[in-house]
Predict the 3D structure of the following.
Amino acid sequence: MFPMDFQAGQTLLVDKPYGWTSFDVVNKLRWNIKRKLQVKNIKVGHAGTLDPLATGLLVICTGKHTKQIDQLMAPAKTYTGTILLGKTTPSYDLETAFDETYPVDHITSEMLEETRRFFIGKLEQTPPVFSAKQIDGKRAYDLARAGKEVKLKANSVEVFSFTLNAESFPEIQFEITCSKGTYIRSIAHDFGAALKSGGTLTALRRTKSGDLCIEQAWQVDALIDRINESI
């Protein structure tokens, strides 16, 4: 196997597990690298955050490679997942409980196709209130969880491709390629609203970040084993 020099710098592709934050992955790897090298600290960071309920490609940098994190923020990312039509949650995903139910019987295949096309191109998108966006130095999700009013500004994002599979309607399987900074949870919510219904993101997996693919990624346990084998 190729040698790993964590202090000189490594760029590692990891398949983030469900329920882990991106920082959980960073902290887990940092702890194991520090123990292996018997050092007090080493720089470890990630390029592009994934929500805890998402899985998939997470780019991790160690040592001097952390200086390259900004360059590794790929302009385009690809995701697969599931949108449940007819229901909403305050977080736009399953982090919070369903709060509203809407009709879906009026939604036709023609409506789905027309709405899908509408979401391709440049969009003005408001991030979810349960997001890591900062407001006066505080994370939006901390304010939202505390029951405080959260107002976020819309951002310009771009969707390059968006495909749907409605065989399990009202669950919609999708694949989407979009610009960095796009919230797929907001796409799910806005997609449901555009259909005069509701939409909740119930599954999400990042499969590509630029030219980097999930097929190249390590499982966390396998990577930790590799760290412990490295010299």
Observations:
- The first helix runs from residue 22 to 37.
